[in-house]
Amino acid sequence: MRRHRHAKIVATVGPASSTPEKLKAQFLAGVDTFRLNFSHGTQDDHARVHAAIRALEREVDRPIGILQDLQGPKIRVGTVRDGRLDLMAGETVRFVLDGAEGDKQAIPLHHPEIFAAVVPGQELLIDDGRVRVRVTGLDATAITALVVTGGAVSNRKGVNLPGTLLDLSPLTPKDRADLAFGLELGVDWVALSFVQKPSDMIEARGLIGERAGLLAKIEKPQALERIDDIIRLSDAVMVARGDLGVEIPHEDVPGRQKELIRACRLAVKPVIVATQMLDSMVGAPAPTRAEASDVATAIYDGADAVMLSAESATGQFPVEAVSMMDRIIRSVEGHKLYHSIVAASDPGEEETPPHAVATATAELAEALHAKAIVTYTASGTTAARVARKRPEPPILALTPNLATARRLCLLWGAHSVQTEDVDSYEEMTAKAAHYVQAEDFARPNDYIVVAAGIPFHTTGNTNNIRVIQV
C-alpha cells in the first residue's frame, strides 16, 4: 500500500493504542514508524507491542519502522514535607544533597553532578519551568537560591539547568538494560535522550554498533552548541521541542527548529519534529487551528517526519489524531506554494560525485515529469541523497536489506521495498519497471528515473542515472 504524501508520521504507542486492533487502525490511518517510549511501561509490555507490530507488518506486507526511545537520566527533587512546598518570589530556599522530607531550607536534590557544575547566577527550573530559582551561593552539600518565579514544588518534580553542562552520561543503568533488550528484540531506531555533547553519541554508538539506527534527541541547549558534530555522529535527529522549550526561550524554538531541519538536510540525516503537535486531541476529536498550523509549518520547513506523543499514547482519539496529521500533511504538500517554499530552504549539497549524481537525478525527474525516482540502495544512503532535494516525484527505494527498508520509513518521500539485489543493467531496468507498476507508481509508457551505484553490490557509491520509459 502506498502513502500519497512525502513526509512521514511517527506515533507513540501507549495504553490507548497498544492492542493489535488499534495498531492496525493507526497504520491504516497513516503511521509509518511506531515509537516505544521506555520512560513508561515494562519490558514485557514493549515486547508484546513489538511482536504485534511485526505481525502487522507481515499481514500488510509493508515495512514498518519501530523506534525505541530511551528514558535517559531524570533530574528531580526528592520528597518534601507534606508532599508540597509553596515557594514565594523573593524568598530564599536551600537545596541539600542528602536528606528526605525536606522543607524550604532543606529541599532534597540527590544529584552530586549538579553541585559540581552549578555556579552562582545560574538558574534552576523546577516542574518544566513553572518555578524558577537563581543560585546565590553553594558549597559541597548545599545550594542557596533566590526564588525568581514562585509556585508549588511537590515530590519528585523535574529540575532543568539551562546553560549548565552536567558531567552525566545519557545512559543510566536502566537505559543500558532497556537498550540491550530493545536490540535483542530488533528495534530499527534507538533515540538517545539527554544528549549534551558529541561524546554522548560515541558512547551510545559503542553499545549499538550497526544493529540499529542511532537518533539524537535535541532537547538540551548544550547540544545546540555542538550540533554539527552531534548530527555527524547520528543517523537521524529528533527536535524534542518540549524539553528544549523549557531550557531556551519559547520564542527561540521556531527558529531553532528551522536551523535543525536545514542542518539535517545538509548532512543527509532524517529529522523528526516532535512534541505537542496536536496536543488538544488528547481529549478532543479535532485540533486547534494553531496546532494544525504547527504541523504544517514543520512540513513547509522540510521535516522528514512529524510525531505524535500523548495524542496517540494516552489520548482518547489516537486513530483520529493520526488521520488528522495525515490530512494536514497531504493538504500542505498539495498546496501550490509548497514546492517553492521547500526549495527556497534547500541547504545545498556537498561537492562530491555521489551528491552531484543524486541532485541531478532529482532535477532530471522533475524536468521529465517522471512518475517516480527509483533508487537501488543497500544502506539507504542513495535514497537519502535524493530525498535531500525534496523532489516532487516519489522515491521508490529498492533494497535487499529488510533493516534498511524499515529504517527508510523515517525518510521523506521514500517508499521502501525489500527485494533481491541486481547484478546487471538489464536486470536493474527490468526490476525498476516491474516495481513502479506493482507498487502503483507508474503505468506503461510513463517515464521513471533510476539512480544506482556501479558496480552493483557496493555501498554509498551513487554514480549512475538511467531514464526508463516503462
From TrEMBL:
SUPFAM superfamilies given in the database record: Phosphoenolpyruvate/pyruvate domain, PK beta-barrel domain-like, PK C-terminal domain-like
Supply the EC number(s): 2.7.1.40
Q: Please give the pathway this protein is involved in.
A: Carbohydrate degradation; glycolysis; pyruvate from D-glyceraldehyde 3-phosphate: step 5/5
Q: Does the record bear Magnesium in its keywords?
A: yes
Q: Does the keyword Protease apply?
A: no
Q: Which UniProt keywords apply?
A: ATP-binding, Glycolysis, Kinase, Magnesium, Metal-binding, Nucleotide-binding, Pyruvate, Transferase
Annotated ranges, domain Pyruvate kinase C-terminal = 355-468
- InterPro entries in alphabetical order: Pyr_Knase, Pyrv/PenolPyrv_kinase-like_dom, Pyrv_kinase-like_dom_sf, Pyrv_Knase-like_insert_dom_sf, Pyrv_Knase_AS, Pyrv_Knase_brl, Pyrv_Knase_C, Pyrv_Knase_C_sf
What are the recorded GO MF terms, alphabetically?
A: kinase activity; pyruvate kinase activity
Q: Which PROSITE patterns match?
A: PYRUVATE_KINASE
Enzyme class per UniProt: transferase
Q: Which reaction does it catalyse?
A: pyruvate + ATP = phosphoenolpyruvate + ADP + H(+)
List, separated by semicolons, the cofactors it needs: K(+)
Determine the domain of life of the protein's source. Bacteria
Q: Which residues form the Pyruvate kinase barrel domain?
A: 5-322
Name the NCBIfam families on file: PRK05826.1, PRK06247.1, PRK06354.1, pyruv_kin
Give the family this protein belongs to, as stated in its UniProt record: Belongs to the pyruvate kinase family.
Checking PANTHER family in the record gives: PYRUVATE KINASE
Protein's recorded name = Pyruvate kinase
